[in-house]
Design goal:
By secondary structure, the chain is α/β, with parallel strands linked by helices. About 35% of the residues lie in helices and about 30% in strands. The two termini are about 35 Å apart.
């Protein structure tokens, strides 16, 4: 699919398989989600702009590359997006964090916002939206809408699993937002869950079901 990168690295796929297993413990699920978050972060940030700077090593002066401009903003969609955040922050500890509180109404599958907080200079930073599941696409669309309202201009999306329906709907609303995912599964069921999927990521991460 145009604008979608499926990260097929063996470590990502192995960890995803462990997460799919229904008998994986809450502790293991949470740890694996953190680890995959870090691995996905490598791919999402692969083309960040660089600049050459003069530095001094213990032996001599040299010109070396470093990231150009302001640091990233990670924007996890509460609550399950927080599971991928720590892994990404380990790679980019200076990144800012925007919190997007949304939940999916179980009857209508529409998104309801209950919290939003973002850096004041978000328009000057690359924003990575984080959510393990891109199912119907409604939550991701609402999150990007809200970030655009706040002034964000450069937005990317990282998720663990996606459905074909969700990807199509998301890019129908936001064709310019690139998406990285570990897998695109078969389809959605009647309740808006990804099949074969891995269940509800938030419930499995926090042991709430």
């Amino acid at each position: 699919m145009k604008g979608v990168t499926v990260v097929d690295h063996p470590l990502v796929q192995h960890k995803l398989t462990l997460m799919r297993k229904k008998d994986t413990s809450t502790k293991s699920f949470r740890q694996l989600l953190k680890e995959i978050g870090a691995l996905l972060c490598y791919e999402v940030t692969r083309d960040l702009p660089m600049e050459e700077v003069e530095i001094e090593t213990p032996l001599s002066r040299m010109t070396a590359p470093q990231l150009a401009g302001k640091k990233l903003v990670f924007a996890p969609i509460l609550r399950s997006g927080m599971g991928m955040l720590d892994g990404m922050l380990e790679l980019v500890p200076a990144a800012r964090v925007a919190h997007v509180g949304l939940y999916r109404d179980p009857q209508t599958l529409a998104c309801v916002e209950y919290y939003f907080k973002a850096p004041a200079d978000i328009s000057e930073r690359t924003v990575v939206v984080i959510d393990p599941m891109l199912a119907t696409g409604n939550t991701a669309i609402a999150a990007v809408d809200r970030l655009l309202e706040a002034g964000a201009k450069d937005i990317r999306m990282a998720c663990l699993l996606a459905s074909p329906e969700g990807v199509s709907k998301f890019h129908g609303h936001h064709p310019g937002v690139r998406l990285w995912t570990a897998a695109i599964d078969e389809r959605l069921n009647d309740h808006g869950y990804i099949l074969p999927g891995l269940g509800d990521a938030g419930d499995r991460m926090y042991g709430t079901r």
